[in-house]
Amino acid sequence: MLSLLEDLSPHARVATAVTPFVAAMLLRLLLGKNRLTRALISLGTMWFAINVLAAPYSERMRQDIVDLQYIFR
């Protein structure tokens, strides 16, 4: 599973982080405020936070951070 996420493009990574939250917000607009939509928004927010916080620890992201020093020289 982790290797699958490593092979994604940066745009696909953003999409996998944002899509659950956006879907939960759309459901809230359609269904209104209820327990289900609150739970889905909470889960979507946690999913986004986990993706954002875990991104720097992926091998590809670490290499990009190391390469930054050569880009700005």
Task: Give the topology, please.
Layout: H1 2-6, H2 10-31, H3 35-54, H4 59-71
Order of helices and strands: HHHH
Distance between the termini: 36 Å
Give the overall shape, derived from the CA principal axes.
elongated
Number of domains: 1
Radius of gyration: 16 Å
Percent of sequence in beta strands: under 5%
Helix content: over 70%
Low-confidence parts? none
Q: Which structural category do the helix and sheet elements fall into?
A: mainly alpha
Biggest sheet architecture:
none
| Count of β-strands | 0
Number of helices: 4
| Overall pLDDT metric | 82
Polypeptide structure, described:
The protein has 73 residues and is an all-alpha fold. The protein has one domain (2-71). The protein has helices at residues 2-6, 10-31, 35-54, 59-71. Helix 2 (10-31) packs antiparallel against helix 3 (35-54). The radius of gyration is 16 Å and the shape is elongated. The mean pLDDT is 82.
Notable traits:
73 residues; mainly alpha; 4 helices
Tell me briefly what this model is.
This protein has 73 residues and is mainly alpha-helical. Helices cover 82% and strands 0% of the residues. The radius of gyration is 16 Å and the shape is elongated.
